[in-house]
Automatic annotation (TrEMBL):
InterPro entries: KR_dom (IPR057326), NAD(P)-bd_dom_sf (IPR036291), Peroxisomal_Beta-Oxidation (IPR051687), Sc_DH/Rdtase_CS (IPR020904), SDR_fam (IPR002347). It comes from Marinobacterium maritimum. Residues 10-206 form the Ketoreductase domain. Belongs to the short-chain dehydrogenases/reductases (SDR) family. SUPFAM superfamilies: NAD(P)-binding Rossmann-fold domains (SSF51735). This is SDR family oxidoreductase. PANTHER family: BLL2957 PROTEIN, DEHYDROGENASES, SHORT CHAIN. The lineage of its organism: Bacteria, Pseudomonadati, Pseudomonadota, Gammaproteobacteria, Oceanospirillales. Coiled coil: none annotated. It comes from the Bacteria.
Length: 306
């Protein structure tokens, strides 16, 4: 274990902690002194199935290193699942200090072919799951006057990507959820922030590799290891980051980004009021130079991070 116990005495839940970013975050939290609830149902990338071994293996690794952790296998998609996850922290360690909402699934598909089931499944895990677990922790945070939420968003929602309407909607919804939690709970000393991670995991293993350009992009992503994201998640859980709330960060290899948030950039006003014709003639032409292009995440982050 690390000599510097940045999170000593804290109890933190990590959802989706059996693999990838969640696993790396759980291990690093424990290495910095936190007691960790390792939540994972062990499903496949699309959320189907269940396997307790990934969560158990992470717990075993933490225990072998001298840390403290317990496994939890409840689904974040259910209200009672969220309650049970937080109860696991209370019953095993006596308190709850942080929630890292990392659980996720992918069911990609072009929008006009996307099924209702695939849309609902992704919303249920990412957005509703983040709500369920956070809502279960919120009364404890309020009572003790402290607590931290770290929520995983994505540039698929912040910027855009092909074939991910469900995922993008969920991930941008998490941004709104996170900001609302930050605003509503700031009076209780609670922080809430988002991280948009760039890291290889099985959840992005579905990225197409039909061209040399796509293959090269995937090869670069595969070099972005989950521990890079875990570092920022651990940082945001520390008392030294208690002044940081309502923000959206990104991590891409050794780069850390602070994202802008929507604010008005142009305005038009008339004392007579607007008609469709005057909007077409005056407003849209005036705004057009500031319109955002239809870009994907890869179009904006188009430089080599290595």
């Amino acid at each position: 274990m690390s000599d510097k116990q940045l999170l000593e005495g804290k109890v933190i839940v990590v959802t989706g902690a059996g693999r990838g970013i969640g696993r790396a975050t759980a291990l690093m939290l424990a290495a910095n002194g936190a007691k960790v609830v390792v939540n994972d149902i062990g499903g496949s990338a699309d959320g189907s199935g269940a396997d307790q071994s990934p969560a158990d293996e992470v717990v075993a690794e933490i225990l072998a290193a001298g840390g403290e952790a317990v496994a939890n296998f409840n689904s974040v998609t259910e209200w009672e699942g969220g309650q049970a996850i937080i109860r696991s922290a209370i019953e095993n360690f006596g308190r709850i200090d942080g929630v890292v909402n990392n659980a996720g699934n992918l069911r990609d598909g072009i929008f006009h072919k996307m099924s209702e089931a695939d849309f609902d499944s992704v919303i249920a895990v990412h957005l509703k799951g983040s709500y369920n677990v956070s809502r279960a922790a919120a009364p404890h945070f309020r009572e003790q006057g402290s607590g931290t939420f770290v929520n995983m968003t994505s540039t698929s929602g912040l910027i855009g990507n092909f074939g991910q309407a469900n995922y993008a909607a969920a991930k941008l919804g998490i941004v709104g959820l996170s900001k609302s939690m930050a605003l509503d709970m700031q009076r209780y000393g609670v922080t809430s922030n988002c991280i948009a991670p760039f890291a290889w995991s099985r959840l992005i293993g579905s990225i197409p590799t039909d061209s040399d350009e796509q293959k090269a992009r995937v090869a670069k992503i595969q070099q972005m290891t989950p521990d890079k994201i875990a570092t920022l998640a651990v940082t945001l859980c520390s008392d030294r980051a208690k002044h940081v709330t309502g923000q959206i960060f990104g991590v891409r290899n050794n780069e850390i980004f602070l994202f802008s948030q929507p604010r008005p950039i142009r305005s038009a006003q008339t004392s007579e009021g607007w008609t469709p014709e005057t909007v077409l003639d005056r407003v849209l032409p005036a705004f057009e130079s500031d319109f955002y292009p239809l870009e994907r995440s890869g179009d904006v982050f188009n430089w080599d991070p290595f």
